[in-house]
Amino acid sequence: MISEEKLELLWKDLLHKQEERTRKSKAVFERAKKVLPAGVTYHTRFFSPYPVYVERAKGSRVWDVDGNEYIDLWMGHGTHILGHLPDVVLDSMKEIAGVGTHLGFENPYAVEYAELLTKVVPNVEMVRFSNSGTEANMYVVRLVRAYTGRKHLIKIEGGWHGGYDVLHTGVTPPFTGPDSAGLPEETIMYTISVPYNDLSALEGALRRYPAAAIILEPVLGAGGCIEPVEGYLKGVRELADKYGALLVLDEVITGFRLSPGGGQEYFNVDADLVVMGKIVGGGYPGAGAFGGRSEIMEMLDHLKRPDPRSRPFHGGTFTGNPVSMIAGMAMVSYLHKNRGLYERAKETWEWAKREIEGICEEHDRACWTTGTATMLGVHFTRIRPRNVREAYELRWSRRAEQALHLYSRLRGILYMSEKMPHFLPSLVHTQEEAKATVDAVREFLSLLR
Ligand SMILES: Cc1ncc(COP(=O)(O)O)c(C=O)c1O
């Protein structure tokens, strides 16, 4: 039997060991707290009792300020699909010295990259670039509203599309109201959240509200790395068509990760608009794009729509800068030409998923796995969660998740988050690294018996 008493004892012991091993991180944390709220630049990067401060990275590994080495299963929030600092991208950056970092004018690199994306990403005939996934979603919301003349948006509970007001609801329990202070209710009055993997809830919402778009991640990312059940995405597509809503796939995580063409290619589903981020910037800051059918994207064309009020705005100082364009292009063309990498990574991490699932079963069914390919979630729930609500509500212990995170850190494995484990390995992580991940879960659970 898993003992919750043992879990508490283990937790205390792990905290003690962690403090011994990360004295320098602790000192940085003390300094950081004075100048950064909570000592962090993004709350999600905090773990108990304080974050490890990472000072460098290469390939599948990162090193903290104490010199501890970790297998990185977070990879820059899922950005580094070829590992940290891949040669193919670094080599492309040599060009920048002769180009400039930010031209502030239209440039041929953005054109070439847009051409490449229309070849690699299904249903993308035209593209616009932005500086983050949040920004790309923000402009997509304007676009779908302008195109359809409708205001309502349907999103998925647990779906994370960044901190843009209109989409910052239905992310965490209780999945209603604004998910942040400082967000008036009015900003989300046209946003409806429905459970993932539930076509009847989606149809109910579509019947009640004339929706401009359904916005969803093909596989929930921050919402627990949960994959679609058989037929779900096809059903979503059909419902979008039936009710005249556009289907926006937020592929900020799944894009170029599940396959070069993202979730659309992997699950054989067609989107009207695709949101990209993370990998699309080749590992450099400023990663975002959205694209889709010309007929929709041309709403942004100021030559066809000279009156600014007749078109949805899109722009920004750094859009289409050569650093993001050249790095992103190097990355995406490499992925496009090396499709075999995806097969190998899928085999490796689906093996890890099966192994962890077996371990969970052996240990009183303490946990369940979710996800697909290089997206893997572990849930300490009573049943396998099919959506984020189940992942939160059926969890038997928050401590188990926190303790697994701390235990893994002590074994040299870093992932996100201590609230809901999800692993986003790159295509270059090895079978040995997958095995180390599996072994950590096995040994952690055996300590709780
Ligand atoms: C699916 C999804 N969409 C949008 C975003 C927001 O992207 P960014 O953090 O680049 O603004 C994220 C970030 O994690 C994401 O996972």
Average pLDDT reading: 97
Distance between the termini: 6 Å
Nearest-angstrom radius of gyration?
A: 22 Å
Number of strands: 14
In percent, how helical is the residue content? Answer: 25-40%
Can you identify the CATH superfamily of the largest domain?
Answer: Type I PLP-dependent aspartate aminotransferase-like (Major domain)
| Number of separate domains | 2
The main pleated sheet reads as: 7 strands, mixed
Strand fraction = 5-15%
As residue ranges, the low-confidence spans are: none
Q: In the CATH hierarchy, what is the class of the largest domain?
A: Alpha Beta
- Give the CATH topology of the largest domain: Aspartate Aminotransferase, domain 2
CATH architecture of the largest domain: 3-Layer(aba) Sandwich
What ligand species are in this complex?
pyridoxal-5'-phosphate
**Spatial arrangement of strands, main beta sheet:** 4-10-9-8-7-5-6
Helix-strand makeup class:
alpha/beta
Give me the strand/helix succession. Answer: HHEEEHHHEHEEHEHEHEEHHHEEHHEEH
